[in-house]
Amino acid sequence: MAAKPRFHNDAVAAPDTGPAPGPSSADRKHPVDETLPPLKMFTSGLQHVAAMYAGVVAPPMIVGPAVGLTAKETAFLMGASLFTAGIATLLQTLGFWRIGARLPFVNGVSFAGVTPMVAIGKDRGHDGIAVIFGAIIVASLLGFLLAPYFCKLVRFFPPVVTGTVITLIGVSLLPVAFNWSQGGNAKAADYGSTTNITMAAVTLVIVLALRKLLRGFLQQISILLGLVIGTLIAIPVGITDFGALGDADPIGFPTPFHFGAPQFEIAAIVSMSIVMLVCMTESTADMLALGKIVDRPADERTIEGGLRADTLGSAISPLFNGFMCSAFAQNIGLVAMTKVRSRFVVAAGGGILIVLGLVPVAASVIALVPLPVLGGAGIVLFGSVAASGIQTLAAAALEKGENALIVAAAVGVGLIPIAAPEFYHAFPEDLLVVLDSGISTGCVVAIVLNLAFNHLGRKPDEETPERDGDRPVAAPVGAH
Predict the structure, then answer these.
(1) 100: left (phi over 0), alpha (psi -120 to 50) or beta
(2) Which residue from 19, 227, 239, 330 lies 20 to 30 Å from 121 (Cα-Cα)?
(3) How far apart are CA 90 and CA 58, in angstroms?
(4) Span 228-252, pLDDT tens digits
């Protein structure tokens, strides 16, 4: 399905000196399509799982108690979320037909749906979960049908827009790392303690030192090694919890419709449909960011396949008691940092997620990593995403026209939910699904201002494809 890759030096003709000693660039596989030796594949995939694990299990940890589930039922939801995240990740990385971005793209439970899901199912027990699942199924199927049209938004993402959005993705994730570094639970007695923050700082230093001192494959898995070393140091410090390991079942399968058949309520469907639009917007931005990082620009066909995988994975997820799935931006930072671009590495991570969902005791081993340790590594990961966005903005010719103004306004609006979380507290709750996502609001502002300043009111002869801030970032349709 993939065409021969383009390399930056393809346009430079080399002198005819006879047959080349090795395969030409046109014959080589693109790094995205390369497979690694089994051990490297497994360890690199495990590194992706370690980076995303906390983000996958957090939504069910919040939604379960809110709707009135027991601790055991909430643990069941967590296992189901790991299992369905693995399925969605395989759909994205391996794909079939016109489904899947076929990029090193990790999918998992979307945090955008947590607030509306809690509102839908609060204190309704199994009925609340059934209504949530019914709304997710309908919203996901609608999103699947909308994907071929939604992907055309790629033409509205020139570098001035994509650079802004990628930067916002990284900056928006940094508070997550800071929260983990403090302990993750603001109600805990040791939240923000010197022990937690020191442990995060130690892990950060370890990761940076490993990146500096190691070479080759060991350097590529420096995040995983940093998490392991940080966790070992955390044991004598006393912040490693072994309780989950002792309580976990050795085997467990997410029984289909464990909480009953899905129920369909109009208000819930509308609410989750809005969440789906938000997730599709963020996934589009994430695919553009990842395409830039792996040197395979995401065109309309790639984005269409990625959105179809998102929505199909989300539609299947409730069958196995999982929630809506979307892109995990923190793993984009891992790709940027490690330079491991193979989609099969992430597919291996998807396989590991499925195993973790089926073997709760194995999942609990990953859960041994204390959140402060994860937070220290997360600062590097999420900062790498923001750095990629800044790099993209450097090519957007901010000195031309009003491009600098576009970035200033979009970043300013996008930072509101981060800098002032209660800013929109007086707005209707339904609007908060969009307004509380700085990525979505910043993306919309950047697109609208780019149209206003770089398109509207300009004469046809003024349109120049070489205008840096307005040049499309994606390759032509079909280049994938």
Answers:
(1) left
(2) 330
(3) 21
(4) 899 899 989 888 777 656 666 667 7
Rounded Cα distance, 410 and 291, in Å: 22
**Token pair for residue 201?**
């700082």
Which amino acid is located at 387 in the chain?
Answer: A
For the question of whether the overall pTM of this predicted structure is more than 0.85, the answer is no
Written as six digits, the tokens of 6 are: 């383009």
As to burial, measured by CB atoms within 10 angstroms (0-12 exposed, 13-18 middle, 19+ buried), residue 83 is buried
* Across 17-43, average pLDDT: 71
Q: Are 161 and 450 in contact (CB under 8 A)?
A: yes
CA pair distance 74, 203, nearest whole angstrom? 30
Other CB atoms within 10 Å distance of the CB of residue 145: 12
Instruction: Using alpha carbons, list the distances in angstroms from residue 93 to 8, 328, 350.
Output: 24, 13, 9
3-state SS track over 158-209: CHHHHHHHHHHHHHHHHHHHHHHHHCCCCCCCCCCCHHHHHHHHHHHHHHHH
Q: What is the pLDDT of residue 106?
A: 87
Closest by CA to 454, choosing from 153, 160, 20, is: 160
Nearest to 374 by CA among 224, 185, 241: 224
Burial of 146 (0-12, 13-18, 19+ CB in 10 A): middle
Mean pLDDT over residues 66-82, rounded? 81
Angle at the Cα of 478 (from 32 to 443), degrees rounded to 5? 75
Residue 462, both tokens: 């003024």
In this model, does residue 256 exceed pLDDT 80? yes
> pLDDT tens across 285-327, in order?
888 888 888 888 888 889 999 999 999 999 999 999 999 988 8
Residues 405 and 19: their CA atoms lie apart, in Å, by 52
pLDDT of residue 248: 60
Q: Write down the mean pLDDT value for the chain.
A: 80
Residue 108, H or E segment: strand 107-109
| pLDDT of 367 | 67
Count of alpha carbons within 13 angstroms of residue 288, beta-carbon side: 31
What Å distances lie between residue 377 and 202, 210, 383, 428, CA to CA? 10, 12, 10, 36
Count of alpha carbons within 13 angstroms of residue 460, beta-carbon side: 0
Inter-CA distances, 20 with 11, 24, 408, Å: 17, 7, 49
CB of 231 within 8 A of CB of 369? Answer: yes
In this prediction, residue 475 carries a pLDDT of 36
Residue 205: per-residue pLDDT? 94
